Amino acid sequence: MSWIMQPWPWWLSGILIGLTVPLLYILAGKAFGISTSLQEAGAMCMPNSQLEYFRKFDRRSNFWTIVFAGGIALGALIASRLLSEDPANLLPNSYATVSGGIKLLVGGFLIGFGTRYAGGCTSGHSITGISNLNWPSLVATIFFFVGGLAVTWGLGNLIFPAQ
Amino acid sequence: MSQNERNEVQNQNTDAKNTALGMSPINYLFVLLIGVYLGILFIKSEVARWERIHDMFLFREAHMYLIISVAIGVAMFSMLIIKRFEVKSLDGKKITYEPKPYHTGVIIGSMMFGAGWAITGACPGPIYAQIGSGEWMALLTLAGAMLGMFSYAALKPKLPH
User: Fold this and answer.
1) Do the Cβ atoms of A79 and B76 come within 8 Å?
2) What is the CA radius of gyration of chain B?
3) What is the pLDDT along chain B (161 residues), one digit of tens a residue?
4) Residues in chain B within 8 Å Cβ distance of A27
5) To the nearest 10°, the Cα dihedral for B29, A62, A38, A144?
6) Among residues B130, B123, B66, B142, which one has the least CA distance to residue A140?
7) Does A108 sit within 8 Å of B143, measured CB to CB?
8) Helix and strand tally (H, E) in chain B?
9) Taking CA atoms, what residue in A is nearest to B65?
């Protein structure tokens, strides 16, 4: 069973992540998607906001996204403390600096703005959307990669630590 | 109608359809457990690791591409089964997918998200996973994401959709 303590192979990871879609549909009646949790958090922070984006949002029927996000954090805690030999180094060491912090803040901003403008992220568009043959989700996924490749290949030397 | 009254009406409408929590406690328990399951997977598959995302965008390794492709394949097959056999959710409701519409933001927003993914090494799920595993710098990614979401909320009426 020592393989459990190592990173899991791509095929096992892919199968188990893909199963999230039917699990959530069958056990909770919800479509798999994570970035809606940001909107839910925003709507909870500003319950009396006049902004249409929060006013027309159903905070109750979307509250599950916050519980889901908390579950993800808890699962990650379990995996890194109990199911891993070496504590995982998830971010490069150079990110633990002021300039690294600014990069994370700016990158995070792009994630929050971008996923909400696009209406989903890797889970809601790429996995749930494409698997339901929703063509705008395929377009979204293609442009996730257009944006990521442009930054990595265009600004890579500027932004990223030398490896 | 004042804002409070409007909220009141909205809440009552929601109450009529759902319980006070939006769904039953057992559904919430399942959501939490599936979240834990996914959090474990995000760490053990290393999709929450910056280097994996970087190597994906550099075409250095196939790991991420394979995981995403297999996940889509498994999800697609599951949806075929669900639709073919009209599988119902646990509380007896029909399982339906509400299509996400196409608009200009699907292109612009997706490119922004892709850029953020490349910089931070996290998409929204892995942000929570990084924080949960004690990578405290990821709190800045989450703070940025909240700022981005609030900015979108404020600018939405002015943006092309």
Assistant:
1) no
2) 19
3) 455 555 554 544 444 344 577 889 999 999 999 999 999 999 999 999 999 999 999 999 999 999 999 999 999 999 999 999 999 999 899 999 999 999 999 999 999 999 999 999 999 999 999 999 999 999 999 999 999 999 999 999 999 99
4) 27, 30-31, 34, 89-90
5) 100
6) B123
7) yes
8) 7, 0
9) A10
Task: Test B72 with A104 for CB contact under 8 angstroms.
Answer: no
Across the interface, whether the CB atoms of A74 and B76 are under 8 A apart is answered no
Closest in B112, B128, B131 to A117, CB measured = B112
ipTM at complex level? 0.96
Nearest-CA residue of chain B relative to A122? B123
Q: Write the single-letter amino acid at A23.
A: L
Buried b (16+ CB within 10 A) or exposed e, B125-141: bbbbbbbbbebebbbbb
pLDDT digits over A118-145, tens only?
A: 999 999 999 999 999 999 999 999 999 9
Nearest-Cα distance to chain B for A44, in Å, is 12
Whole-number pLDDT of residue A158: 81
Which residues on chain A are in Cβ contact (under 8 Å) with B102?
Answer: 135-136, 139
**The tokens 């996995």 sit on which residue?**
A127
